[in-house]
Specification:
It is found in: Nucleus. Keywords: Coiled coil, Metal-binding, Nucleus, Zinc, Zinc-finger. With about 425 residues, this protein is an alpha+beta fold. It has four domains: about 100 residues, no CATH class; about 100 residues, no CATH class; about 100 residues, no CATH class; about 90 residues. About 40% of the residues lie in helices and about 10% in strands. It contains 13 helices and 15 strands. The strands form six sheets. The chain has a three-stranded antiparallel beta sheet with strand order 1-2-4, with no helix packed on it. A hairpin with a 6-residue loop joins strand 14 and strand 15. The radius of gyration is 37 Å and the shape is elongated. The chain starts with a strand and ends in a 7-residue tail after the last helix.
Length: about 425
């Protein structure tokens, strides 16, 4: 993804003095460690550039062969080998046409999108100086949040790519797992200063991306999935992205996805689910961006409602009553157990203080009989220490009395230190 002007990778002063060519290298590398995709950009004033088939979109030469063809066509009298190609005579030819080299991904992902031969584009990704400088990080397939490779399974529903233009002709291009972004509060609906509404926030370029069109594809993707578990996984991801959104389009799409999930949980088979007469109202969402939402809302109103499942009301109410009875019983038992623990510990603390008070009375009585001498000083020291010990135990008792609020509202440290209860995080 580096680029430059002139030597040593592009010609200078050809065909006329002052003519300088530009060069650029892509992200793919071969098994030998050399870069596979290298492009030459000729001066725009050269003849025949707009009509030649050797250029893609009239921007760059992609191979030495295409460059030779153009030179022989536009400059028939030029000595190709001596005038322009000596720059590329090394064994590791940067514009070779040998496609037998094995292409590899920096992250070692054999399904990386960079391994597909991409045509030069005016919106190519731009590498950064943070993650892209890591030897095992691939801009095309490494998640910027967890650095693990994204999966193209089921049309790559599980990740999103930032396509924000960060400079002229270059996009951010970084990808991220949607689940990673949700856990990092960089996707979905997030309040506070970030303020996302069914959107994705790119950590690299600070751009925002609307995720509703991305989730809109999920229903169509699910029609090609064979296993119900995978379908539910895809749809549940969509629900996580859309939940809490205040946008009308996101709310309507969320209702549609939730209805589909409910049908699955009610026992509808995948075949019957997709053969249902219920229209997929969001199949044309991406095409209608920027237009009024009236047609989409009207389509939603035409959705066939889910037929209620037959059930026995009395049996269901009896089942609920039994569940509540069991919950209350467990709660009473838990409270009784907590009460017993508190009773034992509090009484033990009371007995401890009682013993200290008795010892204090004995030491004070002994001190009163000894007016002077070293023994009197020693007894006075003991009395002061006993008073300090009593103050600490009284403070401890006051802290233990916090259980009057209930164990659930008592500070964790008090329960662990004074009642010997191991509280989970």
């Amino acid at each position: 993804m580096e680029s430059g002007i002139g030597l040593p990778y592009a010609p200078e002063n050809w065909p006329k003095p002052g003519d300088t060519w530009r060069w650029k290298v892509g992200p793919r590398i071969t098994g030998k460690g050399t870069f596979l995709d290298r492009y030459l950009y000729p001066p725009k004033h050269l003849p025949g550039l707009s009509n030649t088939e050797t250029l893609r979109k009239g921007t760059a030469f992609r191979s030495r062969l295409s460059l030779e063809r153009y030179i022989r066509l536009a400059f028939p009298d030029a000595d190709v080998r001596k005038s322009i190609l000596p720059v590329y005579t090394s064994d590791e030819d940067p514009m070779h046409d040998n496609v037998s080299d094995i292409m590899v991904c920096k992250a070692g992902n054999d399904k990386c999108g960079s391994l597909m031969m991409p045509p030069p584009s005016e919106t190519e990704p731009m590498t950064c100086d943070i993650c892209c400088s890591e030897p095992s990080f691939c801009t095309d397939c490494s998640c910027i949040l967890c650095c693990k490779s994204v999966s193209v399974e089921h049309e790559g529903y599980s990740y999103t790519k930032c396509e924000a233009v960060v400079s002229e002709g270059r996009i951010c291009g970084h990808v991220a797992h949607i689940n990673c972004a949700l856990r990092a509060y960089m996707a979905g609906t997030v309040g506070g200063s970030i303020g996302l509404d069914a959107e994705y926030y790119c950590r690299r370029c600070d751009a925002r991306k609307d995720l509703v069109p991305h989730v809109n594809r999920f229903l169509e993707i699910c029609k090609t999935v064979e296993y119900q578990g995978d379908v539910e996984k895809i749809l549940n991801l969509g629900i996580c992205v859309l939940r809490g959104s205040q946008r009308v389009d996101a709310k309507e799409l969320l209702n549609c996805i939730e209805s589909t999930v409910i049908k699955l949980k009610c026992g509808t088979s995948l075949e019957d689910l997709w053969n249902d007469d219920t229209p997929t109202i969001w199949s044309d969402f991406s095409e209608s961006e920027g237009k009024d939402n009236d047609d989409a809302v009207q389509s939603l109103q035409d959705v066939t409602p889910i037929e209620p499942m037959p059930f026995n009301r009395e049996a269901e109410m009896h089942k609920l009553e039994e569940e509540i009875r069991e919950v209350l019983k467990a709660l009473r038992e838990a409270q009784e157990s907590e009460y017993q623990i508190a009773e034992v510990r509090l009484h033990a603390q009371k007995e401890c203080l009682g013993d200290l008070y008795r010892q204090l009375e004995e030491e004070k009585s002994e001190l009163s009989r000894r007016v002077s001498g070293s023994d009197a000083e020693s007894l006075m020291t003991n009395v002061l220490k006993r008073l300090d010990q009593i103050r600490k135990e009284v403070t401890k008792l006051k802290e233990m009395e916090e259980v009057a609020k209930g164990f659930g509202r008592t500070p964790r440290g008090i329960l662990e230190e004074y009642f010997h209860l191991a509280i989970e995080e």
